[in-house]
Amino acid sequence: MPRPDTPGLVDTFGRVATDLRVSLTDRCNLRCTYCMPAEGLDWMPGDQVLTDDELLRLMRIAVERLGVTDIRLTGGEPMLRPGLENLVARICALEPRPRLSMTTNGIGLAKRAKDLAAAGLARINVSLDTVDAETFAAITRRDRLSHVIAGLAAARDAGMSPVKINAVLMRGVNEADAVALLKFCLAEGYHLRFIEQMPLDAQHGWSRRDMITAAEILAMLEQEFRLSPFPAKRGGAPAERWLVDGGPGDVGIIASVTRPFCGACERTRLTADGAVRSCLFSNDETDLRALVRAGARDEEVADAWRATMWGKLAGHEINEAGFAQPIRPMSAIGG
Ligand code: SAM
Q: Contact at 8 Å (CB) between 196 and 213?
């Protein structure tokens, strides 16, 4: 099928990507057991990581030429990127201005939330898999729960809204924390999203048996809360949502494995070293950094990006026989 001559990031299944996930670094200051080994990974060499100017140029091309309306900064841990506040301010100055958000582990956020908000960051997702300090230390291999809790409060106090929490549950590790997490979020005014664990860890240790499914999460929550379908339409949002005890509090589940939502996917991804990917699970990607460093014009870069997205597969294929985990782990793609 020939690619239509349209500016947006369309694919052969009629989806249009408007939501860009940008990884600012593959480095992280936590060592979550389900993401990477205790010793960390071989990080990308500095000269391979896009500079701020290169990143900004690609984001400008995305919003000016490719119809991207939403940008989420992630990693690795995006707050490890030097000069993040300045980068946020520059992204917010793009025209048309994208809706900007960030996914972070929250370490250091207590000190930085105010400046990040002043730079233009209005929305934030903080990853937190438990509110129990011991379990937190066992999962992340760092004793930092209080830092994350303080970071969340600082984000709320700085006016960021919504403040969302992402939680991954694992069998025999933190599954019993689902109810406590939701109680904490309801009390603090945060929006909780459970994410089914996906086969994206660097150690290739994922097993379907250990993943806690959306159905199990719902069953656990329903023992304690009354859940009713969320009134607003889901659209391309990854989370399916429920009102808790009649609202206004809510809870969401991102059931990437057991209830895939690939048919409504609106995402395109840029790695910290400048590769564009159509899916977390892509086995191929396009090196935009090479084009940028070779002096390509904006429209050439835009067209390479469009061509990558045109080749997006129908789905991630986790549930297909012969599924192969992508070579890059989650931390090097941008979660
Ligand atoms: N460091 C930031 C953070 O902690 O939010 C951003 C990157 S992290 C990879 C983004 C999200 O991916 C986190 O919420 C994390 O829990 C989630 N994650 C990591 N590995 C995962 C996996 N195998 N399956 C599902 N979610 C995963």
A: yes
